[in-house]
Amino acid sequence: MPQVSRRTAALGTENAFVVLAEVSELVRQGKDVISFCIGQPDFPTPANIQDAAVRAIREGRHGYTPSAGIPELREAAARYMGAMRGLAIDPEHVVVGAGAKPFIAYAILATTDYGAGDEVVYPVPGFPIYESQIRAHGAVPVPLHLRESRDFAFDPAELEAKITPRTRLVILNSPQNPTGGILRRADLEAIAAILARHPDVWVYADEIYSRLAYAEPFASIASLPGMYERTIISDGASKTWAMTGWRIGFAANPLLAPAFTRWVTNTDSCASQPSQWAAVEAIRGPQDAAEAMRRSFVERRDLIVGLLNEVPGVACRTPGGAFYAWPNVTEACRMIGAADSEEFRRRLLNEAGVAVLADVHFGSRVPGEGQHVRFSYAASPEAIEAGVARMADFIRKNARRVA
Prior knowledge:
The chain is an alpha/beta fold and 403 residues long. Helix content is 41%, strand content 12%. It is globular.
């Protein structure tokens, strides 16, 4: 039989979707499951955005578009991203994609050469597609550890230690998936000072959660002196306007936009035209629904963190953004006799009907940081209360068993 390539056989995945498949199968079997595994808003896309897509279809706007996106969306995205970051972004420097995720691959493809030993520094724990795409495109992954003691930021000195003559790209994600950590302006200034000594290194700023920063105003490294030209700003519609399935992302960089456009031509041809018109309305239209969602996420964050910190063996820091909680379950694992967070996660799902993700789904476990799981609190307050209560009951019941 023909064989798949080694590259394909080694390709990683996004375990949120793997666990979601497990949850779906358990639900199909009739099991009651409360799921916190998938990172998407549980709100409907605002009606004005839906209407804009329907209008576009009715008006015949459903064919191919230029690979870089319709001019109206490139202009809207340039103004939107620029206003948030204090930058004047030229629409010609913006490229629209089928979601923000493809730009991870495009950034690696545009800045590294396959098999040349080029290195990409990326956060761990972090979005698993970073490492997967680095390996798939023949670069060398260099993990940069996020520390619980720093509210899941990293020590800039550790970044400097990771940079070598082979470093081509540094990936930053703030607000961050899976921890909800943020890079504050002081952190970014320290990072920029380090990168000033390494002028050949690009930055991929994954800022898809930019509108969901809570602890303090959102800050981008692209805003700092000398950084915009070498920073790939990645943002999109999915999280802010509950448009995950519409698949619209946008990236900006003055030098790499033409390269990204060619990659879009080679892969997707273009993003969906009706979705692009919907995104124009999302950016230009009323922001009431987006702000209401943001307020709800803050309330849910406070609710879930408070409840998790009452669970035996669990300690949870307050995330600064996004919609994820990253509780430390080291003691809970010990209490129930679970070898690690993955065993804890499996048992919690199968015995208590609560679906979360384990830290190992987001890269190798950080040495000395203990065991963690991820909750997506893009769920109703009722689901949060019921799910955390089940988790607490599960730990208490099993702790008695192993006592």
